[in-house]
Amino acid sequence: MAEQPKENRIKELVKLLNEASKAYYADDTEIMDNFTYDKLYDELERLEQETGIFMSDSPTRNVGYESVDDLPKMQHEKPMLSLDKTKDVEVLRSFIGENKTLLSWKMDGLTIVITYRDGELYQAVTRGDGRVGEVVTNNAKVFKGLPVSIPFRGELIIRGEAYITYEDFEEINRQIGDVDAKYKNPRNLCSGSVRQLNNKVTAERNVRLKVFSLVRAEGVDFGNSHEKEFLWLRNIGFDVVEYKVVTASKLDEAMAYFKEKINTNPFPSDGLVALYDDIAYGESLGTTAKFPRNAFAFKWADEQKETTLLEIEWSPSRTGLINPVAIFEPVELEGTTVSRASVHNVSIMKELKLGVGDKILVYKANMIIPQIAENLTGSGIDPLPEKCPACGEETTLSAENGVETLICKNPDCPAKAIKSFALFAGRDAVNIDGMSEATLEKFTGHGFIKDLSDLFKLDRYKEQIVSLDGFGTKSYDKLTAAAEKARHTTLAKVLGGLGIPGVGTAVGRLIANALGNDPRKVMDVSAEELTQIDGIGQVMAEAYRKWWDNEKNRAVYEKLLDIMEFEKPQDAPSAAGISGKTFVVTGSLNNYENRNQLKEFIENAGGKVSGSVSSKTDFLINNDIASNSSKNKTAKELGVPIITEEEFIERFVKGVI
Q: What dotted CATH number matches 582-653?
């Protein structure tokens, strides 16, 4: 078997190690033992030194996030022209003829021009209007999978497409506040993410880049072949867009491949690009006023189906917008069954004259997102809802920049409380497994959840829930079982999930313990009394008191008291040695169920638990003291004591376990 190319192995190792780190630190699970992690880490370090390829998200690099005050404009060396395009395969075939042509994905993201000098990423500029773009160098340095250092030392200029995968888009949509108002698709989210002034945000949104063109590689001869350019770029660490080599006679086979693969593609694509491989021939053709003559774009001809509009479902969002969604008789499109499509706003409804019972043509934009192409009957829109489906308050029709939208202005509308519901149901609070923001958005939109206590009363809506798109009896049973389990919790976790400023579970534990874990006392404790608790200052105490002085907050909590069953917290360890000390816990445990349980134990005794070893760490707890793990290495370098779990128990717990 041929040995895997080193550049591919580097990317594979970066992915494996990052997945292991995420599982360990974010999900509290281990998918790789320390020995294996360290072995792969060492292999990655060796390969990076051998090749000179360093990926932006490599775990061997310490990422320093930076902010800029603005994004300066910059003129491109050469204007970036658009491509002439067609939806007719025969027109594409005629363009290709007998010329060797590279047929690749037409990415639907944000085009970036990137320059490398002396082997380092030097500059990145957006396409802009084709003549002038914005400088986003700071952000390009954190694009996932993009090399920040390469072995080539001459000046290199490439063009690529920044993009966000569908999976990341859906995850970010669940996490980012006001996303409904800002981002309707991965391209819009990517565009906003690349233009951030703080590149930490860009990194968190997992922006990636695929290279589709080499502008210049100083001193390198590619034998007059664009394909050789692609292969060379791939060999020095770049993610190059997938392509097929075709002529007119081989086009159908390649088209069939791309049409099949787009159904499972993880990234947005709105068609294909055909590029003549012969560089000199392509350049000799010149350009028109708008298009280069060496390349041509093919846009997918959207499959359309006629169906009947059954209803308009109004979906309230956390921004106050009430978005119309068309529900229609199910049809098969691009290999899947679809029955709903977002209409986005009232203006589009009016333009389409959408009324229940209308015959409509639907399609999938980019073969992915269901849309309404045309209304064949146009009966006119039905009356807009006068009441918000989530809270029952009156709706308002708003017109801004020529776009009409339906709005709920009730500041206490449950649909606007998605974040607070998600906080309470989250893993660090009462932990209702499966109660995601997407699920909460559906439930509040249908009026199932109006305050926190309703999270535990879903049985009232069983029939409606099991009939929702994406749900069923099994999903309902799993969710209600998780809610019942979460109902038995500690007072500290409830306090940590209420959204009181500055109060998470750790602070909630301090307050609950100081007040004897009395659910009533935590409502009425004075700011002065709170400041007597070690770790709580005046500002936090006053914010805590102000939150409880709000009658609506008290009413929500009172309802919870009728539902929740508070467990007696574990007695605080008697050992005074834990208080004020910082611990790092790594590896598998024998006496504690998981790291979270040990973390809770330490915090309950007044200690702190950190995720990484630093000069502020007092002890590293690791049952494998002899390991050459990165944490052990750092601890030894800093002189931080490494103790086993048994030693921790012997030294600090004193027989509690």
A: 3.40.50.10190
